[in-house]
Amino acid sequence: QNVISQLSQNLNQAMQANQSLTSKLETVAHDREVLRKELLNKKGGDLIPTIALPEFQTIYYPDLGVLALRDYYQSSRSIIFTINDQTKRLNVGDSIKIEQGNQLCRLVYRGMHDGKHGVEKICNKA
């Protein structure tokens, strides 16, 4: 009887923790949507990047490879974008294509935000 009572208490505590976490995640999701709408109104687009990278920094992403951004031109809002062995100048909204297993992905340059360059990864099944 004691074991069943303890298991019941543990289950109730776990369910309460789950409800609390779910509530917090819903709040974060709501806040993200509010931010997206605000960015759309103020800057004309949804500019929340999935990758943020400072200029002249090279980073190895296990699922992408080596990613580097350099030579940002503020007047044209463009940057030299390198992923693995591909290099291309991208303006805001332009993309470079890469293959990832059975997916074809685009890395879209989203511009400068808080001193870092935003890149959004969009993948589709090949």
Structure explained in plain terms:
With 126 residues, the protein is α+β, with helices and mostly antiparallel strands. The protein has 1 helix and 8 strands; from the N terminus they run H-E-E-E-E-E-E-E-E. The chain has one helix spanning 2-43, and strands at residues 51-53, 58-61, 65-73, 78-83, 86-91, 95-100, 103-113, 116-125. A 4-stranded antiparallel β-sheet has the order 1-8-7-6, with no helix packed on it. Strand 3 (65-73) and strand 4 form a beta hairpin. The chain starts with a helix and ends with a strand. The relative contact order is 0.14. The model has no long low-confidence stretch (mean pLDDT 80).
Mean pLDDT: 80
Largest sheet: 4 strands, antiparallel
List the uncertain runs: none
- Rg is 21 Å
Order of strands, widest sheet: 1-8-7-6
Cα end-to-end separation: 56 Å
Percent of residues in helices comes to 25-40%
Global outline: elongated
Instruction: State the helix count.
Output: 1
Order of helices and strands: HEEEEEEEE
* Approximate strand percentage: 35-45%
> Helices and strands: which structural class?
alpha+beta
- The tally of strands reads 8
Assembly state (oligomeric)? single chain
